[in-house]
Amino acid sequence: MHADPNPKHTPYRCKTVLSVFGSRPEAIKMAPVLSELKALHGIQTRVCFTGQDRDMLEQTLGLFGVDTDYDLEIVRDNSSLFDTTTESLPALREVMLDAKPDMVMVHGDTTTALSAALAAFYLRVPVAHVEAGLRSFDKWSTWPDEFNRRTIDTIADLHFAPTARARQNLLAEKTPDGSIFVTGNTSVDAAHTIAARQDDFPMLRQRFNNRPLVLLSVHRRENFGRPMEKIFTTVRTWARQNPGCSVIFPVHPNPNITRSARDILGELRNVSLIPPVDYTQSIFLLRNCQFVMTDSGGLQEEAPAFGKPVVILRDTTERPESIENGSAIMTGSDPEKIMTVMTALSNAHSDSYRRMAAAGNPFGDGRAAHRIASIVQRSLAPALVESGRVL
Length: 391
Fold this sequence. Notes:
The protein has 391 residues and is an alpha/beta fold. It contains 17 helices and 13 strands. It folds into two domains: 198 residues, 3-Layer(aba) Sandwich (Rossmann fold); 157 residues, Rossmann fold (3-Layer(aba) Sandwich). 45% of the residues lie in helices and 14% in strands. Strand 8, helix 9 and strand 9 form a beta-alpha-beta unit. It is globular, with a radius of gyration of 22 Å.
């Protein structure tokens, strides 16, 4: 048999990318990438979910037309880091042996992401890390995230850095320059996609009824206990002083949070403690709020996309770009700092508010997922890309 001289007819084995995630934030940020990969010739996608945030996973992935191929049911309520790690590794080994991926893709800094990267490394499968290079330079803050993301970056073969600063962090750690790609952050892609739908939620709208709205989000482990009590007490004081404003707080179901929120904020007429919201509702609140108070990483990235000032309720952040460009300010749990900033941002016509609202988003232009998918395609199927057969 003679070889076909026409490359159009040359047999080609489709390359498989296995994406692994466990939490809703990971699913939100990975969904735009999965959608882009799904549209590519020469690339087959497989999706593995470890079990965290199960109630909202189907709705979140459904927004982007993404299905899961493997559901490990590992992460349960009150699972410890020991449980997640030790149960994930053998289960992910079996998934990878079955899927036979040419590349494993993980996102961010969760224990699921670390376990998937480690399992792939043990099986000598290349790893792509979305949102690589973020650093707080303190292994205890955020914990265990800083350790997780640093370790994943030592394993990864492709590093998708959201910003130039993240790229510099990787270069400073001797990461090969050729493996680093500045793409923007996929959270901005997801936020733009959902915001374009212009969804409205009358029941949520009634909670603030066109009054100035503060969106509050607090859930991180390092804020449990006294720091969280100080944050909530300060919000209570501000709410009493500003009865014409509203605060909406989607409360994480963790008892460490619900108990404190109920005890300190539960009796205030202009503070709404509501169950966790889905992603479309979160974007609705973000579009309609005056400013955001959060210890979440995702909201730090999303809020500037809508011109919403951010109050970071942490002592460190792996996303300093928003502070540097003026769209965010960090207060930690310090009551005096929180009260000062909340008071300043209560007036949407003040110079300080206008400066923060107009600062812009340093985390991307909404095209990160397209860039990532294109780089994965070039890495796994260079011959097809060069021949123009895969676009």
